[in-house]
């Protein structure tokens, strides 16, 4: 129990879809909700994402400050970099998610991101992407050279510019601290969801289900129905806030 004013209801769904393996890893326990999307060929991606999650889940036992998150991301980066590379290509993984914490006396979401998996918040029925993708196409969208819809179809859409593991010795995560609002619905997902479904479609699917598990299942089913070209993972976290 992190804060007795906050009650969370959580749903998790993942699917291998039309891939040979599911290289996404997921953690959803006690206020720590994380998705990692591994890459590296053969089983290296799966090992990379599960290695990163194995380190980051320790945030469940920490004080849960932005510094804790940065330290955990550094440790996860080092652990993935230490993995053997069997194919000549260094294993790597994205990581994103949300950690419930208390800042001062205010219940807060700590949101972290490295790579192009995403964390969203839906408040009052309106979905907003909290994280910024670390990808080539996201940079083109930011410069006004591509629209979001064009980016979802772009041949280089899966080229990430930051990753845990990979070739870079350092990694800089993005970290946000957001006060929990009553009725917040957080979504943590891999790009297998967001490559298949637009934000407008994700919002519509999330609005269509009250229960977190039903919402997570619905999103993954919709991504599979839309093509399911990649592993797809979704965590839905609903927060109820009561006064002390
Ligand atoms: Ca993926």
Describe this structure in a few short sentences.
The chain has 244 residues and is an alpha+beta fold. The chain has 7 helices and 12 strands.
Which percent range fits the helix content? 25-40%
Using the alpha-carbon principal axes, give the shape. globular
What is the strand tally?
A: 12
CATH class value? Alpha Beta
Report the radius of gyration as a whole number of Å.
Answer: 17 Å
Largest sheet: 7 strands, antiparallel
Tally of individual helices = 7
Order of helices and strands: EEEHHEEEEEHHEEEHHHE
> What is the correct CATH architecture?
4-Layer Sandwich
Class inferred from helices and paired strands = alpha+beta
Low-confidence residue ranges: none
Mean pLDDT across all amino acids: 94
* CATH level-3 fold name: Phosphatase 2c, domain 1
Give the distance, in angstroms, between the N- and C-terminal Cα atoms: 14 Å
Strand content: 25-35%
Defining key terms:
single chain, 244 residues, alpha+beta, Phosphatase 2c, domain 1, 7-stranded antiparallel β-sheet, 5-stranded antiparallel β-sheet, 28% helix, 32% strand, globular, binds calcium ion
Walk me through the topology:
Blueprint: E1 6-15, E2 24-29, E3 32-39, H1 44-56, H2 66-81, E4 92-93, E5 95-103, E6 106-114, E7 118-123, E8 126-129, H3 136-142, H4 148-153, E9 164-165, E10 174-179, E11 185-189, H5 191-194, H6 199-207, H7 212-225, E12 232-241
Antiparallel strand pairs: 1-12, 2-3, 3-4, 3-5, 4-9, 5-6, 6-10, 7-8, 7-11, 11-12
Calcium ion is lined by residues 37, 190-192, 230-231.
């Amino acid at each position: 129990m992190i804060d007795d004013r906050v009650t969370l209801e959580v749903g998790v769904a993942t699917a291998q879809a039309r891939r040979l393996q599911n290289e996404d890893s997921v953690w959803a326990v006690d206020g720590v909700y994380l998705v990692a999307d591994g890459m590296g060929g053969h089983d290296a991606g799966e090992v990379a994402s599960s290695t990163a999650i194995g380190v980051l889940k320790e945030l469940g036992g920490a004080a849960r400050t932005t510094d804790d998150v940065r330290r955990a991301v550094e440790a996860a980066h080092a652990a993935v970099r230490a993995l053997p590379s069997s194919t000549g290509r260094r294993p790597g993984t994205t990581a994103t998610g949300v950690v419930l914490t208390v800042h001062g006396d205010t219940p807060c979401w700590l949101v972290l991101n490295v790579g192009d998996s995403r964390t969203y918040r839906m408040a009052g029925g309106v979905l907003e992407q909290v994280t910024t993708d670390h990808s080539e196409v996201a940079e083109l969208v930011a410069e006004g050279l591509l629209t979001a819809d064009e980016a979802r179809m772009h041949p280089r859409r899966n080229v990430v510019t930051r990753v845990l593991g990979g070739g870079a010795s350092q990694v800089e995560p993005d970290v946000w601290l957001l006060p929990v609002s009553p009725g917040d619905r957080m979504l943590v997902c891999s790009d297998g969801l967001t490559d298949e479904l637009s934000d407008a479609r994700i919002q519509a699917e999330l609005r269509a289900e009250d229960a977190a598990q039903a919402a997570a299942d619905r999103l993954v089913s919709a991504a599979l129905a839309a093509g399911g070209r990649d592993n797809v993972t979704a965590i839905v976290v609903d927060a109820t806030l009561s006064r002390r």
